[in-house]
Prior knowledge:
The structure holds two protein chains of two kinds. By secondary structure, chain A is mostly beta strands.
Amino acid sequence: DIQMTQSPSSLSASVGDRVTITCRASQSISSSLNWYQQKPGKAPKLLIYAASSLQSGVPSRFSGSGSGTDFTLTISSLQPEDFATYYCQQSYSTLYTFGQGTKLEI
Amino acid sequence: QVQLHQWGAGLLKPSETLSLTCAVYGGSFSGYYWSWIRQPPGKGLEWIGDINHSGSTNYNPSLKSRITISVDTSKNQFSLKMSSVTAADTAVYYCARVVRGAKWYFDLWGRGTPVTVSS
């Protein structure tokens, strides 16, 4: 299995802050990396696919970068609705695996 | 607008079989793979398996011996059966659409079905 490790596990920030979340794969996964946002009691929502492509309807303050084993999700200016848990997920292998999540808190 | 509507029994006893179904409304069924993903309480996401309209399946090896994913193209539905459940199978179960183009990702999700296994 390809292991996905996110850091940090939790993060405190304020509205207007620039925030970066990191995801590391246990082997090279090219750009086969997706990011999801999950709010309490809700299903995950796709934000970024293929490492850096913004899903339709997602605000442009979200961006992704990286390739190989190291990836980042950046929120350029935090909004109140961005406080949630974020997951990375690799699709290089058909045994899809997720990171453990990063909880973004006020 | 494509929607995924899922349902199934929410309370099971140990050793029983979990059965969930997800219906796809408002869009193409044949152009995608369809997946099941679960999330234990307070924990992260685990991919269970997926299927396409032809019935071609992929399963998580850690669950493969206990799961069957099937499809009913006449109803645009797919289903999950998991046998011999234990408390460790307690989770919210999501169905999701898998885009498999140049890159693969889960772009649409159902609302989730909470499943509790308890004696």
